């Protein structure tokens, strides 16, 4: 977990700033201090960002030692330490959770070629193997509508990628992509961290595309059409994420009048806690429960999880509750969630 909550958008900002100040320092002989500070901020926000910033951190250290800029290293270390202070204060326990993260420990080269997984999150199946999925960021319409065309132009003109900044960007993106391919799950959201870097890599291809006579001739209508299609594909790709946020807000409104009691839930419990609702939270995933009390609340959607979580702790808990207790429905959500009360 990152500082307070893992934010992809905030991490992306820190990653972009890390690369900006790195190239600024390399080409214009400026200070490397901001590189370490923003890379640290990215790491504190989302651990996986280390795989993106690791190459520039190494090269920045190389520049510092070869040019004897030890004062910059000292300043960078002090400022980076200051950046981590809120993390140590508010989430000391999370320091020890990184190495025990299930998906990190489940990383394997064999996952590169798998499209179906049975993990602690249940069983999930996808269309493409992980290795193909992780390259979505180059050509998936949800990220960039003309990505396939730009990727082909980039591959055709691969000799133009021998500049220093291209090599660094490709190394960073490649390291992150191949790391993600070994994790047994797929989520387009996590690919977004390297998307700005991918755009920089493919920018020369975009320039070449704009030089085509017929495109220049009909630039405005083609541009409007591409932007429209990009918005449509972006909405289609990320609609589930937006819908999830809306559902969480609606669930908060739905259960807000029943605060102050024990609430058994799953999947949405962290989101509910983050929105400040006061319950004695019990997660149906973490352990089996056998002793429920009268008036305890349960927020659950059994139909949603009956396949993915079959014979897993959340469904086993639910089946035990259904079999041994009488339930009263206090509230319904249109998407299937129900708030139950034990009678």
Automatic annotation (TrEMBL):
Lineage of source species: Bacteria, Pseudomonadati, Bacteroidota, Flavobacteriia, Flavobacteriales
Keyword Lipid biosynthesis: no
Annotated organism of origin: Aquimarina litoralis
Keywords from the UniProt entry: Membrane, Transmembrane, Transmembrane helix
Top-level taxon of origin: Bacteria
Transmembrane segments: 9-27, 47-66, 73-94, 131-155, 167-184, 190-209, 218-238
Record-given protein name: Glycosyltransferase RgtA/B/C/D-like domain-containing protein
Recorded coiled-coil stretches: none
């Amino acid at each position: 977990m990152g500082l307070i909550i893992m934010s992809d958008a905030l991490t992306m900002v820190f990653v972009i700033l890390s690369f900006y100040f790195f190239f600024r320092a390399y080409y214009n002989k400026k200070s490397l201090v901001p590189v370490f500070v923003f890379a640290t901020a990215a790491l504190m926000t989302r651990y996986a960002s280390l795989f993106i910033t690791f190459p520039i951190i190494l090269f920045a250290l190389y520049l510092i030692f070869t040019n004897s800029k030890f004062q910059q290293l000292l300043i960078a270390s002090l400022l980076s330490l200051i950046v981590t202070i809120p993390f140590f204060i508010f989430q000391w326990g999370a320091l020890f959770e990184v190495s025990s993260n299930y998906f990190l420990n489940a990383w394997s080269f064999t996952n590169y070629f798998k499209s179906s997984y049975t993990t602690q999150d249940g069983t999930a199946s996808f269309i493409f193997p992980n290795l193909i999925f992780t390259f979505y960021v180059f050509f998936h319409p949800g990220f960039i509508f003309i990505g396939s065309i730009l990727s082909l132009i980039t591959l055709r003109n691969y000799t133009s990628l021998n500049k220093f900044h291209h090599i660094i960007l490709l190394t960073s993106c490649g390291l992150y992509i191949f790391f993600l391919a070994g994790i047994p799950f797929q989520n387009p959201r996590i690919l977004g961290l390297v998307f700005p870097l991918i755009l920089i890599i493919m920018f020369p291809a975009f320039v070449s595309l704009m030089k085509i006579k017929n495109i220049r001739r009909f630039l405005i209508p083609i541009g409007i059409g591409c932007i429209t299609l990009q918005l449509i594909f972006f909405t289609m790709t990320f609609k589930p994420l937006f819908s999830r946020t809306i559902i969480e807000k609606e669930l908060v409104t739905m259960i807000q009048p029943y605060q102050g009691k024990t609430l058994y839930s799953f999947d949405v419990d962290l989101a509910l806690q983050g929105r400040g609702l006061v319950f004695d939270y019990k997660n149906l995933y973490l352990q089996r429960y056998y002793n429920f009390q009268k008036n305890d609340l349960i927020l659950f959607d059994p139909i949603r999880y009956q396949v993915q979580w079959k014979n897993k702790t959340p469904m086993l808990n639910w089946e035990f509750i259904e079999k041994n207790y009488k339930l009263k429905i206090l509230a319904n959500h249109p998407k299937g969630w129900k708030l139950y009360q034990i009678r």
